[in-house]
Specification:
With 121 residues, the chain is of the alpha/beta class. The protein has one domain: Alpha-Beta Barrel (TIM Barrel), CATH 3.20.20. 32% of the residues lie in helices and 17% in strands. The protein is built from 5 helices and 6 strands, in the order H-E-E-E-H-E-H-H-E-H-E. It has helices at residues 9-18, 44-51, 65-68, 72-78, 95-104; strands at 25-28, 31-32, 36-37, 58-62, 86-89, 108-110. The strands form 2 sheets. It has a 4-stranded parallel beta sheet with strand order 1-4-5-6.
Length: 121
């Protein structure tokens, strides 16, 4: 893969289905307001490396700092280490957030529609 090249999450899901495997997107989340520290001392890079030894269709990385103590730096760190698409999961609110998603190396982004106003961007 070259720098700036994206991996298709949709294609990865279809590939897993064709293999007869349930397409799973595994998630890396640092913290949960209810459960606390979810990494329990593990480095996100190490966790990602283990996750991709299984037939996952992609990795979801929660980057929201306020509620989940996430960071886009996690995507930057794991991008060169994993062969699967990376989905950025955050409370995306502006075009700037979309640009940042591309800049950090994510292949896809989850948009929470209820946060968007009717005026669009």
């Amino acid at each position: 893969m070259t720098v700036g090249e994206t991996r298709s999450l949709a294609a990865s899901i279809r590939r897993r289905q064709a293999e007869g495997v349930m397409p799973v997107i595994s998630e890396i989340k640092v913290h949960s307001p209810k459960e606390g520290d979810l990494l329990r001392g593990r480095a996100p890079e190490d966790l990602a490396a283990v996750m991709v030894t299984l037939p996952v269709a992609g990795l979801s990385v929660v980057t929201d700092l306020v509620h989940f103590l996430g960071d886009t730096g996690i995507i930057r760190a794991i991008r060169p280490l994993v062969p699967v698409p990376i989905l950025r999961k955050d409370f995306t609110q502006s075009e700037r957030d979309l640009d940042e998603t591309v800049d950090v190396g994510a292949d896809a982004i989850l948009l929470t529609v209820c946060l968007l106003d009717d005026g669009g961007w």
